[in-house]
Amino acid sequence: MDLDSLIIAVFCLVEDALARAVPGRLRRRGPRPVLADSEVLTVELVGEYLGLDREAELFSYFRRHYGHFFPALCQVHRTTFARQAANLRRVKERLWQRLLGRTGCDPSWAIADSFPLAVCRFGRAPSCRRFRGLADYGPDHAAKATIYGFRLHARVCWPGVVTRLSVAPAGVADLAVVEELTDETTGVCLADRAYWAPELSEWLRGRGLELLAPFKKRASDPTPARSRRITRIRYRIETVFSQLCERFSVKRVWARDLWHLSSRLLRKLLAHTLMVVLNREQGHEPLRLAELLTN
User: Fold this and answer.
1) Which residue, 48, 90, 98, 175, shows the most beta carbons closer than 10 Å to its own?
2) Residues 237/111, Cβ–Cβ less than 8 Å
3) pTM greater than 0.90
C-alpha cells in the first residue's frame, strides 16, 4: 500500500480499537479537544513508522503534507499537540494490550532479553540532572563500555511481538527482572547465558514456566548442542530489538522524566505492534515492516 492508504488503515484500526478499549467518553470533565485522540494517535504511530520520533517533527510533517487528512492540525499549536499526545499514555497502554491479540503471537512461547538505554554521554553523567535518583551506571556489553541510564528488559512472544517491557536502572542484572517479566505466564521462555540460574529455573518450573538458557560459561558448557539450538531460536529477539532501535529510534532519549519516557516507549511499542498487525492482515511476514509501503 502507499502512504495515504497506510494512514487511512492506521486511523481506522486505531478508531475501532480505541472505541473498544476505552468505551464512552475518555475525559470526564472539560471540553472535547479540537484534534481527536484517534487523529493524534494516528499521526504519532505513522510518524514513528516513518522515523519521525519527535513531536515537533511529527506535527510539522503532517501539518505540511497531510493537512487535508487532519484539518484540525492547522487549528492547534504544536505544544497543545505534544501535551495531548503525552496525556494519552494510559490509552496507548490499553491499545497496545488490546492489539496484542490480533498479532497472532503465541503467549506460551517467549524470549527474554534486555538492552541498554543511555540518557546522556558518559562524560556528562556526573552533572546530568535528568532522571537523577532513577538512572544508574551499568555495562553495555555490545559496546564493551559503561553507560549512565537504564536497561530495557523485554518479553517477546513468537513470532516477534513485545508483550512486556520493564525499565530498570542500568546496573540491575537481567536475572533480577525475570520474575516481573514472566509473572502470570506459562509455557517456555528462552534466554541467553546471563539468565543461567538453576534455582530460579526450578522455581519457575513449579509455576508452569520453563526457562531455557545456555550454560553460563561457554568454555565449560556440558551441552553445547543444546545451547546452540537455544541461541539460534533466541536470535529472533535481536531482530525485534534492531527494529526498535533503528526504525523506531528507541535509544533516543528526548524525555526529561520517567513519565514522559514511559509515554515515548509505549508509543514505540504500540507502533511496532500495530505494524505487525497490518503486516499480518496484508499477508506479509510479521516482522518485514518495510513491505507495508510498496511505493
Assistant:
1) 48
2) yes
3) yes
pLDDT at 151 over 90: yes
Domain boundaries, the chain: 3-87, 107-252
pLDDT digits (tens, 9 = 90+) for 212-240: 999 999 889 999 999 999 999 999 999 99
User: If we measure between CA atoms, which residue out of 75, 93, 84 comes closest to residue 269?
Assistant: 93
C-alpha cell at 36: 481527536
Q: What is the CATH number of domain 107-252?
A: 3.30.420
Q: Mean of the pLDDT values across residues 59-71?
A: 93
How many other CB atoms sit within 10 Å of the CB of residue 25?
8
Q: With the CA atoms of 55, 114, 287 and 213 taken in that order, what torsion angle do they form, in degrees rounded to the nearest 10?
A: -170
b/e code 70-106 from CB counts within 10 Å (16+ = b): beebeebeeeebbebbeebbebbbbbbeebbebbebe
- State the Cα–Cα distance between residues 135 and 141, nearest whole angstrom: 18
